[in-house]
Amino acid sequence: MVRRMSEPKPVILSGIQPSGHLAIGNYLGALKNWVELQDRYDCIFLVVDLHALTVRQVPAELRRRCLSFAAQYIACGIDPEKSAIAIQSHVPQHAELGWVLNTITYMGELNRMTQFKDKSARHNQNINVGLFSYPVLMAADILLYQADLVPVGADQKQHLELTRDVAQRFNNLYSPTFTVPEAFIPKVGARIMSLQDPTKKMSKSDDVEGNYISLLDPPNVITRKIKRAVTDSGTEVRFDEGSAGLANLITMYSVLSGLDIPAVEAHFAGKMYGHLKVELAELTVETLRPVQAEYARLMEDSAYLDGILARGAEDCRGRARKTLSKVYRKVGLVPAAR
User: Fold this and answer.
1) What single string gives the DSSP state of each residue in 226-287?
2) For position 253, what pLDDT does the model report?
3) For the chain, which terminus, N or C, has the lower number of CB atoms within 10 Å?
């Protein structure tokens, strides 16, 4: 079981869908912040594999990615002695609570979800019910653990608002049951954009390999991708949101180095874009080197990784059972005989 202090800490829950490749954008925008939260919060970090089923998957590849993502969480610094790390499908209460919440979520609310519209356009041969009700399962993920805080990006704010509405609706219909979660906005965060199309967020599921840097990319691939990153026709290394490609590279350098934007600009004063790209490539390679080494070690020790996931799932199931038993009792379901 995960060790806890006697004084309860606020609960933070977050998860990533095991699709594509975890990218430097995921690291700088999420995983790096997760690591820093562990000492101050009671953290639960999930690999949300049930969500991945809304898109057709190759079963063997999905299983491999689930284990790979969990290993990358740990390799990036998530400590299984401080945080619960689990695969969503190992905790059946996610789907069970999701069904109950489906019965108090309105069609009109789900029709307004912009992510459903976006994904339907991209996967128009498989517009399934799961894709439509995805936000309800996400609400169950959060409410199941009485999460106080949820780190969210711009693309998930709408889903968190729905989660809050559903929690308040259930609490009003029956009695106070769920903690109504708040959005957690880290003091230091980064929205990393695509290397080739810096008007769009870097996506781990991008079909164009040059648009993202995978956490597992070898050094020569990282260097090639950064050198080919889109900038503009200027020469001065100066942060300007109107120059999206350059601003993106400066942001990456800032977060990886720990220097603020003015310090990065001062560092590259009198230098060209090429200097920024060379140093950014070297910094990225060195940042990911220990992550990749630890990842390789974890993937070679399947018993150790399985043990971490088993303990995380046990911890999560214990918490989830408490919430679900309250929900079942309040909606009028007969308790199972023991």
Assistant:
1) HHT----S--S----TTSHHHHHHHHHHHHHHT--HHHHHHHTTT--HHHHHHHHHHHHHHH
2) 94
3) C
Tell whether 277 is covered by a domain.
Answer: yes
Per DSSP, the three-state class of 80 is: coil
Q: What are phi and psi of 29, to 5 degrees?
A: -90, -20
Residue 76's domain comprises 11-185+302-331
| Residues paired with residue 84 on neighbouring β-strands, in sequence order | 44
Residues with catalytic roles: 119, 201, 204
- Do 33 and 166 have their domain in common? yes
Distance (Å, whole) CA 151 – CA 160: 10
Indicate whether 146 and 279 sit together in one domain. Answer: no
Whether 319 and 171 share a structural domain: yes
Q: For residues 62 and 176, state if they share a domain.
A: yes
Residue 164 tokens read as 């809050």
Tell me the pLDDT tens digit for each residue of 211-260.
999 999 999 999 999 999 998 877 888 898 888 899 999 999 999 999 99
